[in-house]
Amino acid sequence: MKHADVIIIGSGIAALQLANKLTKSLNVMILTKKDITMGNSYMAQGGVAAAIAQGDDPYLHYLDTLEAGAHHNHAEAVLEMTKGAPEIIKGLWQAGCSFDEDEQGKLLLGMEGAHSMNRIVHSGGDATGKHMVDFLLANLEENISIEQSVFVYELILDGNRCVGVKAKLPDGTNEVFYAGHVVLATGGCGQVYSFTSNAESATGDGMALAYRAGAELADMEFVQFHPTLLFVDGKTRGLVSEAVRGEGAILVTAGGKRIMEGIHPLKDLAPRHIVSQTIYDYSKKGTQIFLDVSAIANFSARFPTITQLCTEHGVDVEKGLIPVVPGSHFIMGGVKTDLNGITSIQGLYAIGEVAYTGIHGANRLASNSLLEGMFIGGNLADWLNTYGAANSLPEIQVIQSQYFSRPDLPDINELKKRMMDLTGIVRTKESLSAQKKWLDQLGLNEWFEASLDHLTAIEINKLFMYITACMITESALERTESRGGHYRDDFPHEDNYNWMKRQIIHQRKTVKDGKHEFNQTAIAT
Ligand code: SIN
Question: Would you tell me which CATH number, out of the four given (3.20.20.140, 3.30.479.10, 1.20.58.100, 2.60.40.10), belongs to the domain 403-517?
């Protein structure tokens, strides 16, 4: 049994920003299920958006964020974040985090899809996440300890207060960690889809943990599919950043036809869901789409990470054509929080991609995710620094369950493929109902609340992916309109009359008569 003032589950940008900004008198423990550098933040090629350029204004960044989010965003939250963005970047830069500069030593500002101005700050060309994570890691103080290969599988509750977590250690044994403040910073769930840009660790753990504990989650139907993942031998092999199109690359067929002509005024830099849907239509007909990068001078110097990725998979960027398909990239929904990361359970917080703050609306604007992680991570640090350690934690006796049955878990590759085909880029009532029926017939409802003490980390991870897949499918079926990342072929337009600002909220209710009560629909404030 171990104790800390604050436990942070996960080690991405939001987690490290929080850890760096917490007061040194707090004893902080970071628990991460893999190696600290194996998450999505470390792999992030895109940069951080901030209205720094002459002629730019946070208000324009705000408007672009709302437009990309199909006006489903929490407008006040967007305003706060876009106003704070320039200070966040300047603060990091002045503290010594290296960002790409021009010859005069000013920040280089790139362009990405759906931004009206050049406002994307990068580091190391296309290695922004790695540079930022390395910088934040190097600045951690002695009050922060990091335990790697520790898989958190349950939140410990005392009534409606979270007081700690149970975790699987590398040797397979269980350990209990107590803390007055428990922060989910577990990232997203891209791995529930067969085509994804996400790290292997992005399996929806935080969403499933929160759901099992009874916290509120919102907007799980809004999944962003990135248009350009490197596609070799039938598999996605990593991201080809939107910044490549920002620098002039175009999407073409093998015969050189520009596929975004006539589809959207912004052509190759149209909002991601439109580009993804267009590529998807071609791939369904068996046509491979390529990113033509031949117009970009010094491609390999500008995009070293992408060049290396292509080389590793036998694609020669000098030839100018990179084969691509769309795949899951980011989820806009998640554990519902306010701007300080506070969830519906006392003592439990969520920051980064696992959280729903309302900032991204129905579709995230490019390069707003590292920014949101830094912004909310910093806010939570301010809040916890004021609140301090929780002094009188109740003594909870954790009983290891004597439950010995095991769930009959699905083949995870089948689950991922079905999510891609049926709950993916283009959805219909038929496809979603078929997926829901398949998920339901697996009969795993009792495992939404049963003890997991005796299961292995691999089994629990599969269960977490299953729970996350259920939430995405259920809410995608319920939302009978198209908006942002959620596209229904049978309801192809936004339905502002019925759905504007409405949210699908998930909150676990007890299993009754073998049936699980799953969904409530609520009106967002
Ligand atoms: C990209 O570089 O295309 C991804 C950046 C992002 O998703 O914000």
Answer: 1.20.58.100
Instruction: Report whether CATH 3.90.700.10 matches the domain 226-327.
Output: yes
What dotted CATH number matches 2-188+330-387?
3.50.50.60
Structure confidence at residue 201 (pLDDT): 95
- pLDDT (0 to 100) of residue 525: 35
Q: Max Cα separation, the chain? A: 69
Question: What is the reported pLDDT for 520?
Answer: 46
CA of 243 to the centre of ligand 1 (A): 8
* Pair 480, 495: CB distance under 8 Å: yes
Tokens encoding 352: 């980064």
> Which amino acid, 128?
T
End-to-end CA distance of the chain: give it in Å, rounded. 41
Question: Contact 202/213 with Cβ under 8 angstroms?
Answer: no
Ligand 1 close to Cβ of residue 45 (< 6 A): yes
- Show the tokens assigned to 225: 């599919």
The Å distance, Cα 240 to ligand 1 centre, comes to: 9
Query: How high is the pLDDT of residue 495?
Result: 97
Q: Given this model, what pLDDT does residue 519 score? A: 47
pTM above 0.90, yes or no: yes
367 contact partners, CB below 8 Å, separation of at least 6:
46, 47, 48, 49, 112, 115, 120
One of 272, 418, 427, 508 is an active-site residue; which one?
Answer: 272
Q: Could you tell me if 331 and 222 are in contact, meaning their C-beta atoms sit under 8 angstroms apart?
A: yes
pLDDT for res 321 = 98
Q: Whose CA is nearest to atom 5 of ligand 1?
A: 46
Q: Please say if 508 is a catalytic residue.
A: no
DSSP lists the bridge partners of residue 178 as 3, 164
Regions of the chain with pLDDT less than 70: 391-392, 394-395, 402-403, 510-525
Amino acid 511: pLDDT: 56
- Type and span of the H or E element at 175: strand 174-184
DSSP assignments along 351-389, one per residue:
-GGGEE-SSSTTSPPTT-HHHHHHHHHHHHHHHHHHH--
pLDDT at 514: 52
Which residues, 6 or more positions from 269, have their beta carbon under 8 angstroms from its beta carbon? 111, 112, 113, 114, 242, 245, 246
